[in-house]
Structures are given as C-alpha cells and as structure tokens.
Amino acid sequence: MAEKLTSRAEDYSKWYNELVMMADLAQHSDVKGCMVIKPYGYAIWEKMKDALDKMFKDTGHQNAYFPLFIPKSYLSKEASHVEGFAKECAVVTHYRLKTQDGEVVVDPDAKLEEELIVRPTSETIIWNTYKGWIQSYRDLPILINQWANVVRWEMRTRLFLRTAEFLWQEGHTAHSTAQEAMEETAKMLDVYADFAENWMAMPVIKGKKTESERFAGALDTLCIEALMQDGKALQAGTSHFLGQNFAKAFDVKFANKEGVQDYVWATSWGVSTRLMGALIMTHSDDKGLRLPPMLAPIHVVIVPIYKGAEQIDVILEKMKPLMDELKAKGITVKFDADDTKRSGWKFAEYELKGVPVRIAVGQRDLENNSLEIARRDTGEKMSFSMDGAADQIEQLLKDIQSSMLSSARQFRDQHITPVESYEEFKELLETKGGFFAAHWDGTAATEEKIKTETKATIRCIPLDQVQEDGKCMVTGQPSKGRVLFAKAY
After folding, report:
1. How far is 300 from 354, CA to CA, in rounded Å?
2. Are 390 and 325 in contact (CB under 8 A)?
3. Helix or strand holding residue 103 (H, E)
4. For residue 283, which of 86, 19, 4, 5 has the smallest C-alpha distance?
5. Averaged pLDDT in 10-residue chunks for the chain of 489 residues
6. pLDDT at residue 152, as a whole number
7. Helix, strand, coil fractions of the chain, as percent rounded to 5
C-alpha cells in the first residue's frame, strides 16, 4: 500500500482514525459530527445486525418502527429521563423553507405549534404508543425491537465511537410483573454477552452500573464492559430495568388476573455502531484490521501469482471447484483477478482489510496440487493440499475465531489489577491501564472525587462480584466487594 498506518505505540488515537478511513470503513461527512459508513464498513455492521436480529427473534421479540420525531412535551413527562438527554437533543422548530432574495431561508410563518425532538432514544414515544395497545394482562408481554438511527448532539466526535448520528437497535418491552421485567433485562444482557464473545471474539464483563451511571429514567442498568488494547474500557451494550417509571409517566395501566388496575413494568436495551469501534480496537494491529471470521464480509481471498495476464484465467478455472465447495459451506470467497495491481500490493490491502484467510496460488502450486495459506490473525503461513482443502479451510476459520477470542481474553485478564490504595490506583492507571478491582464505600461523593481527580469511572459492579470485606481505597470506609474502575471511551 502507498500509505502506512501510524503504529499503535506511537499514537493510538491517530492509528484508530487512520485505520477506519484507510480500510474503507467510514469517513467524516460534511455534516459536522456525522459519518458516512462506506460499503465495507456497512457490510460488517450488516453481519452484526443480522446475527443480533436472529438472536432477538429466537428469544421471542418482533421488530417494529416508531417515528423519528418526538413531541417535546413527551420528554418532559419523565423528569430524570429528560434531564439525562436535554443537552444532547436536536430540536425541529419549523416545517418549511422559502426563497427570499435568491436565498433559501426558514419560513417564519411555518413555525411548529410544538417543537419536535429528533429521536435521542425512543422510550417516550413508544410508551405513549403502548398506552393504546395495553388494556389487560392478556396483552402482555409486549416484546418489541426497533432498528433505527438516533441523534445525540455530541461536540467531540470520533468515527463509530461517538458521532452525532449513529445506528442502533433499541428493545422496548412491557410486562405484568417486576420479576418478569427483571428476568428480561438479565436475559438480553446475556444475549449481548453471547454475541460479543462468540461473534465478535471480544470478552466482556457483565455487571451493574452505579446509580450515577444508570440510564436516565432506569431503576437499574446492566452492562457489558470490554477492554481495548490501549487499556481503556468500552461499554459495549446496556440493558435497563425501567420499573414503572415510564408507565406512570404515560399512564399505561392494565387489568391483572384479579381485575385490579396496575401500572406496566418496562425494560429497554440497546447496542449501536459503537460495536464497530470495539471490534477494531479489540483485535486490530499495525498492519490493519483483524476480523473474526464470524463477522468478516470476505472469509477467504485468493490472490493469483502469474507471469502473464492470460494465466489468471487458467488459475481461476482450476480454483473454481474449491471456490464452489467453500461457498456451499457458507464461506465467502473473493478471487482477485485485477491485473493492474502487484500481488504484494494485494497482500497488504487484504491485511489492511482484515480478511481472515489469504490463499496465494501460482502455476507451480497448481502443478504441485498445493495452496499457500496465510492466516491474518497470527500471520502464520502453511501449505494445504488441493484435495480436501475446503474442509481444512473451514476448520482453519473456526480455529481463527476461537484463537482471537482466547488472545483477547488473555490480554483482558492480564489487565485486571487488584489495588488496595488510592496512590497505587493513580500510579497504575497512568502506567498500566486496564481494569482496576478496588474497594469503594458505595457513595456518590467518593465516586465523583475519583472521576474528577483521575478521569476514571466505575465501569461496573461485576455480577459475579465476590463478597469480600475490605476498606474503600479512598476513604477507608467499609466495603463488601470490589468494583471495576477504568478510563473509558
């Protein structure tokens, strides 16, 4: 390739931005804070979307779609919710333009009676809608998911990780009991963890957010937290138990089996294109992307090695049976017949794009009935016989998937550090990074002090937290278990 990536060690942030653009995943748009997701990047997102969509449907959920615009009055019905999103809302005030002195201007006569908020999240409009759907316990549960775009007016943006507009899914469910809603909240967190580990090859820690870190309007927020290669954490998905807050705000009641009126219990849960950033930063290296096969748009690329352009057709003809066999196994294959690029250039391009398996084949390989195989995750090269190559490649892709998860988990586990004192915490936060398991006294004041002084936050209270008597690293007050701190995206 003509350009070379900045190394992670030199400048991790620059490396990330260059990689996103050079690998043709996304680019900045002319609309400040918004991105263009390019075809290769969108193909990865589609793989994520398709896998998650199946998992949602397998757990009984259906897809629906709700309006992009939300009346301002809806947001003000749930106080903590509007407070949580007020500073990020984009507001529509007019509905028409006109031409004036050759310029397009907003028509002052077309002012909306009530301003509309461009969807930052959909709880309010969905619960206003559910009011008309729910009369009795027979109408419950409602298990709905929406694939959509949302707008949160971010001032400091970074492609995929934080943009003013992004793509996501948001689940919104309604239940007749608190227990059922809490079970749904936990179930969907498990779905996210399953997807992160078995599709993204990204190990995660399941936990509970502290009160100050909860979703606005939730009684409880569960999350999955992942660790990036620079030692920063990334929240990869959240699932919220909303209690009856939104049902009360929008007067959504139902008659239970005894005929008594009660408010409905709610959950919401979501993941976004932020997962693209997580995928990149969990696995990629100084040569480019490293994609787990489960999410790679191209599983195998075949690069012909030839002396004359006419040899390309000969090699293609010989490789067709293998390509057909691989495709029959659900393995996507690209044969690069472009005779304007040298093979070395192609090798670098597919390394940059993270294609899991590369096959180089020339006239001599055909004569020897063999293939030169390179795996992207380790760079290891090997030789396969043409006979039975499809089965070997299928197994190799499985090995790459599990190896990438194992490697990422080993890195994560090596960067979970128990700390006893605040001084030790501050020192290691700067020198080592990663997750820090520390005792905390459970107060918002101590949590805020740590955040202000170090920029580290409590990422989660692990769901598998071990009960362990200790003392808060800051105040020395009693603590019953360790929580995980980290700097985060």
Report:
1. 10
2. yes
3. strand 103-106
4. 19
5. 85 98 97 96 98 98 98 93 92 97 96 98 98 98 98 92 97 98 98 98 98 96 98 98 97 97 98 98 98 98 91 95 98 95 95 98 94 97 96 98 98 98 97 97 98 98 94 97 97
6. 96
7. 35, 30, 35
CA angle in degrees (0–180, nearest 5) for 64-222-69: 35
Secondary structure (DSSP) of 221-233: EEEEEEE-TTS-E
Q: CATH homologous superfamily of domain 12-283?
A: Bira Bifunctional Protein; Domain 2 (3.30.930.10)
**What is the spatial distance between Cα 192 and Cα 20, in angstroms, rounded to a whole number?**
24
Q: Where are the domains of the chain?
A: 12-283, 298-395, 416-486
Amino acid, single-letter form, for residue 361: V
Q: For residue 114, which amino acid is it?
A: E
Q: Which amino acid is at 298?
A: I
CB of 228 closer than 8 Å to CB of 218: no
Cα Rg of the chain, angstroms: 26
Q: Which residue has the tokens 């055909």?
A: 366
Q: Which helix (H) or strand (E) holds 350?
A: helix 343-352
Cα–Cα dist 357/380, whole Å: 10
Write the Ramachandran bin of 306: left for phi over 0, alpha for psi from -120 to 50, otherwise beta.
beta
Q: What does the pLDDT read at residue 454?
A: 98
Domain 298-395 fold: Rossmann fold (3.40.50)
> What CATH number has the domain spanning 416-486?
3.30.110.30
| Torsional sign, CA 184, 70, 121, 274 | positive
Q: Which two tokens stand for residue 381?
A: 């090269």
Residue type, 267: T
Helix axes 444-454, 422-431, angle to 10 degrees: 40
Contact in structure between 376 and 293 (CB atoms under 8 Å): no
Q: Give residue 156's pLDDT.
A: 86
SS3 of 446, please? helix
Q: Which pTM does this prediction carry?
A: 0.96
Q: Are 254 and 176 in contact (CB under 8 A)?
A: yes
For the chain, what's the residue count? 489
Q: What are the structure tokens assigned to 30, written together?
A: 């002319």
Q: DSSP string of 449-467?
A: HHHHHHS-EEEEEETTPPP
Please, what sign has the CA dihedral across residues 346, 349, 353, 356? Answer: positive
Distance CA 360, CA 376 (A): 13
Peptide bond before residue 67 is cis, with ω within 30 degrees of 0: no
